[in-house]
Q: What sequence folds into this?
């Protein structure tokens, strides 16, 4: 079983849809764990900001994605509050967590420590606090980290040098040696359709940046752990 940490309900699909579809076709057991699945945010919604309705809509979109996959892929929701519900604040990769954020890190660390699966976690590109919290939580099980993925659409908005700088920072501070792997190369023609299963979250520029990065790399890039220092 591979554990994929998805900060929000759309993040695994936006960042790793081709990889997930490939592993599904190979019948590799995967669990997609969405951490911050309680939200009242719809990027392209019907104007509703009723929390229960937003959660229903977003989980229904995830269900539509699950129908494209084999039963070897499971979906799990930790139902933590996302950043706006906690009181969103801008965050850098290295610091500025509120006490509520620190509690979320501790909760995720406890969850990961209760499991024994290899973990795929976000790099935290774009510095969205929920993505960084997921990354920080994964550090608690560093010897089980299989890879980090590039957070999309954010990775499509920043220079390549900034992505490589983040990778270098992680290597220097976590003593993990990372190597790039382009995954899902035979499934890139499905990416737009799979991302479009999340219409409530898909702003026009999101899809543009996701597909730009996909075409530039000819797949989805993961940074796989080669050595634990």
A:
């Amino acid at each position: 079983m591979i554990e994929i940490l998805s900060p929000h309900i759309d993040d695994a699909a936006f960042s790793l849809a081709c990889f997930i579809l490939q592993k599904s076709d190979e019948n590799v057991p995967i669990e997609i764990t969405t951490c911050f699945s309680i939200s009242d945010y719809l990027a392209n919604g019907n104007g509703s900001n009723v929390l229960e309705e937003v959660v229903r809509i977003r989980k229904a979109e995830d269900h539509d994605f699950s129908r494209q996959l084999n039963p070897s892929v499971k979906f799990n929701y930790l139902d933590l509050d996302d950043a706006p519900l906690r009181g969103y604040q801008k965050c850098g990769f290295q610091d500025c967590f509120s006490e509520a954020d620190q509690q979320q890190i501790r909760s995720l660390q406890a969850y990961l420590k209760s499991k024994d699966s290899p973990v795929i976690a976000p790099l935290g590109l774009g510095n969205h606090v929920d993505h960084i919290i997921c990354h920080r939580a994964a550090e608690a099980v560093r010897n089980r980290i299989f890879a980090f993925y590039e957070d999309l659409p954010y990775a499509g908005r920043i220079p390549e040098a900034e992505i490589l700088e983040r990778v270098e920072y992680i290597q220097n501070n976590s003593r993990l040696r990372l190597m790039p792997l382009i995954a899902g190369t035979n499934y890139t023609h499905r990416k737009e359709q799979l991302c479009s299963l999340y219409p409530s979250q898909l702003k026009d520029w999101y899809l543009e940046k996701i597909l730009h990065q996909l075409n530039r790399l000819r797949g989805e890039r993961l940074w796989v752990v080669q050595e634990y220092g």
